[in-house]
Amino acid sequence: MNTSSLTVTSPPPASAVPSGGVVAVVAPFSSGKHYRDEIIHRGWKCVAVIPDEDMLPPLYRGSPAPTEYRQVVTHDGSLDMTAQALRALQVTAVVAGTEIGVALTEQLAHRLNVPGNDPRTSHLRRDKGAMAAALARAGLDGPRSLSTDRLQDALSWAQSLPDVTDFVLKPADSAGSDGVIFCSGPEEISTAWMRLHQVPNAMGGGNDHLVLQERLRGSQYVVNSVSVTDLRGAARHTITECWADRRTPGTHLYDRLDLLNRNRLVPRVLTDYTVRVLDALGVANGPAHSEVMYVPGRGPVLIETGARPEGFYDPHSMREVTGSDHIRDAVHAVVTGKPRRLAADRPRAAVSKISLIAPYDGVLDPVFVHRLLNLPTVRGHVGALEPGGRIQRTVDLLTSPGRLTLAAEDPREIDHDHAVIRAMENSGLYRSGPR
């Protein structure tokens, strides 16, 4: 074990030392890497907390050392040492960069006595089975679920629901649709169980317990939010974005997300439900990313919530076309202690996010990549999307080659380019080959 949790990197050139507080970003991977620039833009300092290499899931191992931070604290498993290092840096706020940083963020915020969610209930914000149970206790509709480490318990529970024929088996604590398997009947449940049980998931969990849920059918949505605790100790939730979430038929693969006007009926219903979900799950501070199914005849039903920014997210293009984004909204809450006013700063342009779906391992064709990135409605992307770059077959969000942000005054222009993107995928964007 390391004798010290603090490693100091050389600070980047700066004409002036920022004023304000100090924010620690825990596990600044994925969308969390965008925190730093926005925090500094707001006049605060920013440090990083990185779990030790052997504590990281394979997805993040070998990531380049974050040299752009003034200080990097390496967490070696000792909360006391990491908290001591952050106190020495006068940290006044702690935020989670990605899913693997959620529990550690809450523990450190508690140790430092700064705003954060209660670490005693962290499992409600990580374990999908615990989430569903918390909703039931709060009188909110959630998917009927069982969290278990025994296949026989899963089979018996499925048999006890005669009105349910289709199920979803998933890791209790992963993300990005990693390990999600649709199944019907005992044979398929057993096969899915053998594929997942005790097989490490993308977020580092061991899959000792799996969650079996009824498969919800309806229209799926993404609801992003930012929460703050006011001076009276009450949580205030602001719904910052609502997206219609379209998956490819019969699968959980992401197709496109369409930004919705929050003042319309469906987003208002989703807002009311999600605010109550956030209370039930103990989300009192920081960003959250929720996936909700609107089931006909039943209403909104939570699929899952993550107490961190939306992953696979391009804040730069979102700022260009809407005036803000999930990261900016979260930082605003940190530095002001108040939710951001959203009514007047979001243009009415149509905005969509298109996820690329590779049918096999291979490489990206340079000519098609150039055409793709220069489509009229494309405003930005996440994912390398480098000409000749290697890609793998898409099985979930984490294995998608990239996601494009599209915007236009006329939504039909987005529909046109969406169709062009799918045609490119079938006609030359991907070249087959070994990984």
- The level of helicity is 25-40%
Terminal Cα separation, in Å?
35 Å
Stretches where pLDDT is under 50 for at least 5 consecutive residues are 1-18
Radius of gyration, whole Å = 22 Å
- Count the E strands: 20
Specify the number of helices: 11
Characterization of this structure:
There is one protein chain. The radius of gyration is 22 Å and the shape is globular. The strands form four sheets. An eight-stranded antiparallel beta sheet has the order 14-13-10-11-12-15-19-17, sandwiched between helices. A five-stranded mixed beta sheet has the order 1-4-3-2-5. The longest helix has 17 residues, at about 410-425. Helix content is about 25%, strand content about 25%. A hairpin with a 5-residue loop joins β10 and β11. The protein has about 425 residues and is α+β, with helices and mostly antiparallel strands. The two termini are about 35 Å apart. Mean pLDDT is about 90; it is low at about 1-20.
